[in-house]
Amino acid sequence: MEVIAKPKGGMNVDKMAEKVFWEAIKMLGGLKRLVEYRNLTWLPSLAEAAYVLVLKNEAFKTYREIAEYLGITEQTVKNIATADEEAVKKYLEGELEERPKEHIAGGIAKLAYKKLKEEKRLDEQEVEMYHDEIEALGIDWAVHVLARIRGTHFPLNKDELKEKLEGIVVKGKKIEELLDKIEYPVKSPAELLHKIKVAAEEG
Hints:
By secondary structure, the chain is an all-alpha fold. The protein has helices at residues 13-27, 31-37, 42-57, 63-70, 74-81, 85-92, 104-118, 131-136, 140-148, 158-165, 175-179, 189-202, and strands spanning 169-170, 173-174. The chain folds into 2 domains: 13-119, no CATH class; 131-202, no CATH class. It is built from 12 helices and 2 strands, in the order ααααααααααββαα. It has a two-stranded antiparallel sheet. α1 crosses α3 (42-57) and α3 packs across α4 (63-70). The protein is globular. InterPro entries: CHP03879_regulat_dom_put, RNA_pol_sigma_r3/r4-like. This is KaiC associated regulatory domain protein.
């Protein structure tokens, strides 16, 4: 079972990535604002981007190591890591008419990561969650999944995930049934969210 080395400060990568993820949502105005953008589909990409930034900047992993850990391509890792966050910010604020070629979720995650670093909050233990908004939007399953796997070392197999996630309902479907449909092992929390989302949408 792979264990990612803990970066400076003693906080593990999972915790830091989670922090970047929620800060990004907060910077966007909360989950309700994401509905306005019609980009709730960003959530798995945003989680993925949060991991890329933490693995690169805090755990000092190479593009290849990050790609292997997250189960994505090296090019995707590079696109996230090199995204022009200021261009993405201007696009989100309506200053750019055309969508930039940057990795949007990567740019958002970079803004959140930079803010946390500047304010020296990346190492804080608390993770602020917007429970009311999340439940109202029907995507509380992602929060429950993240909470249940907090501190878990990846990759995980089906039996391990069923034990941890038993009882969670995703878009009206039992997560146990969705876990039967995905491929294993699951290499990261970001990959897990993505696979569950795809399985739920496929019906």
